[in-house]
UniProtKB/TrEMBL annotation:
It comes from the Eukaryota. It is a multi-pass membrane protein. It comes from Fusarium oxysporum f. sp. cubense (strain race 1) (Panama disease fungus). The keyword Transferase applies. This is Palmitoyltransferase. Keywords: Acyltransferase, Lipoprotein, Membrane, Palmitate, Transferase, Transmembrane, Transmembrane helix. GO terms for biological process: protein targeting to membrane. The chain crosses the membrane at residues 81-102, 215-233, 254-280. GO terms for molecular function: protein-cysteine S-palmitoyltransferase activity. The DHHC domain is required for palmitoyltransferase activity. The lineage of its organism: Eukaryota, Fungi, Dikarya, Ascomycota, Pezizomycotina. Pfam families: DHHC.
Length: 441
């Protein structure tokens, strides 16, 4: 009779003690998680030398607000799972954002994508620096007219390709400030006085120019910064609404983090959308300002292509004024006697080789606004971000478009080139294919 209540009471007490110990253990675990989180993140913030102070202010304010949220969720409300997820998201996004930022910043500072100066331009800059050190006037005319010499330095790097961007007369574009031939998609920066490969914009946060060498890292940074700000805004907004419903005081750090998160979130989301749009369309910020520009392409055609009044042609290497076309019987064999048959044969062979080295280009003009580098949205994206998903999300490698090792062109051209050939009646005019067909026959 009396044993049953006593046993029940003992079981209840034992259960209460066990529950109390379990709650204590749970509280200790929460404290350990919070301490590890605080020590780890605060140590990173203290030791990571972020180049921009405003970047560090944003991260530190977000850390303070998240710390408040974790205490509220995990210790006061018992929402341990919410706290653990918040810690994981915050830490991962913080790590990825800072890694992308540092990768982009270092690239901008040490590999900005400048087109190297010519020796003449280097000498001009040295003279300018020398005059400045002597206190003299440094205003030396850097502008120079186009170098139309057949052996102009750097010209062969264009006509050794099969396609390049050209002017109306078939010459590559010329930069009068750099005194150099301007590579495809290069733009002269007045801020740095260099031509820049696939220049996008000058970024104050990165302290330099975003170009083909850093554009993919810039996209990753903007994306992770946007995600980071969304987490901060969502967490602080939710916690603030809970405290308002409970008529509790709101920590000022939550308001500051909300304001900063909203400001930088708006900026980073806008930049992410804009940069991704450029990547999918294979354009740059500079191209947007010239969206109706007209491209002229020098497209290699067989040297025996008959003349056509629909387009002009140009043949490289260029001939000097007064020189006729090199022919086997004129350029190398003049002055030779009939008795010197062996030498004449060698000269003829050399002349024939020179003839084979000649490359003829058709000058084809696109319509206003047509983008010759549009490869299709996915291929455009891959040309900037890389071929693998890992490269899309981690700041590992430079963009594939920054590798100019193709013998066809500096940048891969899209279907517009074949469309231009069709418009101008040049279907099947690929020199390599024609040579292969003649060999097989």
């Amino acid at each position: 009779m009396f044993g049953s209540p006593m046993v029940t009471w003992m079981i209840v007490k034992k259960t209460e003690r066990s529950s109390h110990r379990s709650n204590q253990l749970h509280s200790y675990m929460i404290e350990i998680v919070l301490v590890v989180y605080r020590v780890t993140v605060s140590d990173l913030l203290r030791n990571w030398a972020l180049p921009k102070e405003d970047m560090k202010i944003v991260i530190e304010s977000s850390f303070a607000s998240v710390d408040i949220a974790l205490q509220d969720f995990m210790q006061k409300r018992g929402k341990t799972a919410v706290g653990v997820v918040l810690i994981a998201l915050y830490s991962i996004l913080l790590l990825l954002m800072v890694a992308a930022y540092i990768r982009c910043y270092v690239t901008v500072q040490f590999n900005p994508g400048f087109v190297p100066w010519t020796a003449e331009r280097e000498a001009l800059e040295q003279e300018r620096n020398q005059r400045a050190s002597n206190g003299a006037d440094v205003e030396i005319r850097s502008w120079a007219p186009r170098d139309d010499e057949p052996d102009s330095p750097g010209l062969e790097s264009f006509y050794s390709k099969d396609i390049f961007v050209c002017e109306l007369d078939g010459f590559p574009k010329w930069c009068s400030d750099c005194r150099n031939w301007k590579p495809d998609r290069a733009h002269h920066s007045t801020e740095y006085d260099y031509c820049v490969y696939k220049m996008d914009h000058v970024c104050p946060w990165m302290g330099g120019i975003i170009s083909e060498t850093s554009f993919n890292f810039f996209i990753q940074f903007c994306f992770y910064c946007a995600c980071f700000c969304i987490i901060i805004i969502s967490t602080n907004g939710y916690l603030t609404s809970l405290r308002l419903q409970e008529a509790k005081s709101i920590d000022a750090r939550l308001i500051v983090a909300l304001a900063l998160g909203g400001l930088f979130g708006l900026f980073s989301i806008t930049m992410t959308v804009t940069a991704l749009r450029f990547a999918f369309q294979n354009i740059t910020n500079v191209d947007m300002y010239k969206k109706n520009q007209i491209f002229r392409l020098a497209v290699r055609i067989p040297t025996d292509t008959p003349p056509n009044d629909r387009f002009n042609t140009i043949t490289y290497p260029l001939e000097r004024p007064g020189e006729g076309p090199r022919a086997p019987d004129a350029a190398h064999t003049s002055g030779m006697t009939q008795a010197n048959g062996a030498a004449s044969a060698r000269a003829s062979a050399m002349a024939a080789r020179d003839q084979q080295a000649r490359r003829t280009f058709a000058i084809l003009q696109a319509e206003p606004g047509e983008n010759p580098w549009h490869l299709g949205y996915l291929q455009n994206f891959k040309s900037v971000m890389g071929d693998s998903i890992i490269e899309w999300f981690l700041p590992i490698r430079h963009s594939p478009c920054s590798r100019h090792d193709s013998m066809v062109s500096d940048y891969k051209f899209g279907p517009l080139v074949e469309e231009l050939k069709r418009r101008y009646g040049l279907e099947g005019s690929d020199p390599e294919k024609r040579a292969a067909a003649m060999t097989s026959n």
